[in-house]
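[step 3/7] inverse_fold.run input=structure_tokens len=808
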């Protein structure tokens, strides 16, 4: 079995440096090389450098690494990850390729240059090294032509999407001579180690994702002109209402770069002479004018949109009018004369798309036309570019962030109904699709005998969708009701097998409410009183792990003056978190996505955290005018005390904790959460979200089966600064108020937080206080803040304005 311990990345542009950064995120060292410059820059001349200076010879790789470090959004989980990237150049460091287990070519998209590179790679790579190209569409057979057969066995395309860290799709294209076992190894490596969604593609221009994606863009340009729509109107139709990202078509183009899009389109035109829609890939005149003027999008300051400042310095975004070629103010409410909003407000993506497709107004007609174009084009070329419909759907969801893939979209609008409409419009229907409809089939995906199946356009029948048996799916487990031990509207307790339970959150946004707490406590009692169970996972498969406490309940109680009810809810959640922490059997919490407020507190209560790499964790209670109320203050304080042992005095951990909570710090990755203090060194990170529950279960079993058995932690006692520390901190708060850096109410919240963290009136550097003492302090502070009108205003504002905070 191959093993990848070190990787060489040949090319340090945006893609090369992004790949090197993501390898570092996965803990894999890389050697990033680029060409040697042939002339000095003015700055290098000023510094007296020569072309032989290492700084000059490595200039491009150095710039690439700096680009990755400065990238926004960030390419590295934490900047320290850059230490795993070694830079060099193609001349001085080429011999080091012999040390690498995987060599990725990421040079300019020119076949002649790539062939030169691979000829040199073949001479130096060790016999077991895997070789791949990150090309976005050049034929793998053309790149490998003339190279040894042994090289071809280890050769493939590994096409990452940009930005590499965030885009899930990884397309693998085998060479006809590729070793199938190596293709399968790289599929698993891409999924499990790099956290990617991997699909196997055929060797066709632009493979799957970009072939269909760029067709959709070119169709949009054509239909936009025919329907005389504005740029922002098109994006309004092709955004949420179509089950696409908010950036839709033109905003996405500005982000990606118009030059990139046009290059991909030209690649289809030049290399797919038999494409059924070949002429569509030619650039419209007005778009070519944009390219000629370098109106390429964000990287050149303007594209389909342009950000400007008015006389008062306020930023506004204008849109390009293709007729006048001038940037104009956007229509405030695009397509207000249509029923577009009726489609956009549906919560289910399938319902949104179905509603849009059959609207009888200009928004619906345009949305239908572009959708029908894309569906039929994909159906025509599907057998050429992919082995099955699922690969096509995954490419569009993982590579373009669509809610639904092509054939999932077709299922949403009804294949039979939509094909009838297409026929009525005189559109050509591909033969395999005609046969599908003639058999009376009306869905490309069905469920049969508990298994999801898809239509196989090669065999003309439904086939089972392959599933990874080593990964746990809560949705699949719950199909067997025997696996659900108890449930309510907010949570379920599920048997994961092997003596491991899973407490799954199921409330809206997985917010914490009394029903969740009640089932959580019942679950802990079952775990700790029945010898059958070894431990528990707390996790779910929602969009985010937990958005915190149910703020609506707190607002309702505060408005009614039911502060005793608020105290009861807080006390119950505190007790639950303490019960998690001191459970007699191990509990592993598996956070991902937004893990905020109470979600963060539950996470820190666990025996161990198994976090998804993209976990954005933080205590954000100051936003609604509160402080953490379920033990978050003491748990973060404990972690900072542990990390800062040996430092003088008890105040530094208090200060560190105060800063994280008062500034509502939210990590940009699970690794950064470790540096803030939310995760300990012993906590673990998973890059593939699909593995999260499985990995958390394995952690539970490891803890339960450790030598000597699992033992819960010992209660923690604090020696805190007490009143002296509070007075010192209060001076800082007063200074911030005087300089207007914070509002008066911010100061009130900060003082409450400081009072709790310094230990109130009973603590001192020589007198210990218990965890329960701190819990009582924070609960009292939480309730007192709820009584304040300005906090109530903040809570209501957040609920009414989609989570935006009020600074009053």
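[step 3/7] decode complete -> sequence:
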């Amino acid at each position: 079995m191959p093993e990848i311990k070190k990787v060489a990345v040949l090319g340090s542009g945006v893609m090369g440096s992004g790949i090197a950064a993501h390898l570092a995120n996965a803990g894999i060292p890389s050697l990033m090389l680029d060409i040697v410059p042939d002339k000095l820059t003015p700055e290098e001349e000023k510094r007296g450098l020569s072309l032989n200076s290492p700084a000059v010879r490595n200039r491009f790789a150095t710039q690439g690494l700096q680009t990755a470090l400065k990238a926004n959004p960030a390419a590295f989980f934490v900047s320290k990850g850059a230490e795993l990237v070694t830079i060099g150049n193609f001349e001085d460091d080429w011999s080091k390729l012999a040390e690498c287990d995987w060599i990725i070519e990421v040079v300019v998209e020119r076949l002649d240059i790539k062939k030169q590179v691979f000829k040199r790679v073949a001479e130096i790579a060790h016999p077991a090294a895997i070789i791949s190209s990150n090309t976005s569409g050049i034929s793998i057979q053309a790149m490998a032509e003339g190279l040894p057969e042994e090289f071809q066995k280890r050769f493939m395309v590994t096409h990452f999407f940009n930005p590499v860290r965030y885009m899930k799709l990884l397309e693998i294209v085998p060479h006809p001579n590729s070793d199938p076992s190596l293709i399968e190894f790289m599929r698993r490596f891409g999924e499990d180690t790099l956290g990617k969604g991997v699909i196997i593609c055929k060797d066709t221009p632009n493979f799957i994702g970009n072939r269909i994606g760029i067709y959709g863009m070119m169709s949009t340009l054509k239909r936009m002109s025919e329907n005389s729509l504005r740029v922002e109107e098109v994006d309004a139709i092709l955004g949420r209402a179509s089950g696409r990202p908010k950036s839709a078509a033109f905003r996405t183009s500005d982000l990606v770069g118009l030059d990139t899009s046009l290059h991909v389109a030209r690649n289809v035109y030049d290399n797919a002479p038999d494409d059924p829609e070949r002429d569509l890939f030619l650039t419209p005149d007005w778009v070519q004018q944009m390219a000629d003027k370098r109106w390429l999008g964000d990287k050149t300051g303007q594209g389909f949109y342009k950000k400007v400042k008015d006389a008062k310095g306020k930023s506004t975004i204008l849109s390009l009018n293709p007729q006048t070629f001038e940037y104009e103010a956007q229509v405030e409410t695009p397509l207000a004369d249509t029923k577009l909003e009726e489609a956009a407000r549906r919560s289910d993506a399938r319902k949104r798309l179905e509603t849009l497709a059959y609207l009888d107004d200009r928004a619906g007609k345009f949305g239908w036309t572009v959708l029908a174009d894309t569906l039929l084009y994909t159906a025509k070329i599907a057998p050429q570019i992919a082995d099955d419909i699922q690969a096509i759907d995954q490419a569009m969801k993982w590579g373009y962030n669509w809610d639904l893939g092509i054939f999932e979209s077709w299922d949403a609008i009804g294949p039979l109904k939509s094909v009838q409409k297409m026929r009525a419009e005189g559109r050509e229907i591909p033969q395999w699709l005609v046969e599908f409809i003639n058999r009376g089939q009306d869905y490309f995906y069905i469920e049969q005998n508990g298994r999801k199946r898809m239509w196989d356009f090669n065999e003309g029948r439904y086939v089972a969708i392959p599933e990874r048996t080593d990964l746990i799916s809560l949705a699949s487990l719950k199909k067997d009701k025997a696996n659900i031990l108890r449930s309510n509207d907010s949570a379920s307790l599920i048997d994961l097998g092997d003596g491991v339970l899973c407490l799954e959150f199921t409330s809206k946004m997985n917010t914490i409410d009394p029903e969740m707490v009640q089932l959580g406590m019942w679950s802990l009692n079952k775990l700790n009183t029945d010898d059958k169970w070894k431990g528990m996972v707390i996790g779910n498969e929602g969009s985010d792990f937990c958005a915190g406490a149910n703020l609506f309940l707190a607002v309702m109680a505060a408005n009614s003056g039911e502060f005793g009810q608020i105290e009861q809810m807080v006390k119950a959640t505190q007790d639950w978190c303490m019960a998690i922490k001191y459970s007699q059997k191990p509990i592993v919490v598996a956070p991902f996505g937004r893990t905020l407020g109470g979600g963060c507190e539950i996470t820190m209560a666990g025996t161990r955290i198994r976090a998804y790499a993209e976990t954005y964790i933080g205590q954000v209670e100051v936003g609604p005018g509160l402080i953490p109320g379920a033990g978050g203050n003491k748990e973060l304080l404990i972690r900072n005390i542990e990390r800062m042992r040996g430092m003088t005095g008890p105040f530094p951990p208090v200060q560190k904790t105060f800063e994280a909570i008062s500034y509502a710090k939210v990590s940009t990755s699970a690794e950064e959460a470790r540096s803030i203090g939310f995760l300990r060194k012993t906590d673990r990170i998973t890059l593939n979200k699909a593995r999260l529950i499985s990995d958390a279960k394995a952690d539970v079993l490891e803890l339960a089966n450790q030598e000597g058995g699992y033992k819960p932690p010992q209660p923690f006692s604090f020696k805190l600064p007490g009143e002296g520390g509070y007075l010192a901190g209060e001076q800082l708060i007063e200074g911030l108020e005087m300089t207007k850096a914070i509002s008066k109410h911010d100061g009130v919240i900060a003082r409450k937080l400081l009072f709790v963290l310094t230990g109130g009136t009973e603590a001192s550097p020589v007198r210990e206080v218990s965890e329960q003492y701190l819990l009582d302090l924070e609960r009292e502070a939480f309730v007192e803040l709820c009584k304040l009108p300005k906090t109530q205003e903040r809570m209501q504002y957040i609920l009414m304005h989609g989570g935006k905070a009020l600074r009053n």
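[step 4/7] annotate
The CA atoms of residues 726 and 758 lie 6 Å apart.
The chain has a mean pLDDT of 95.
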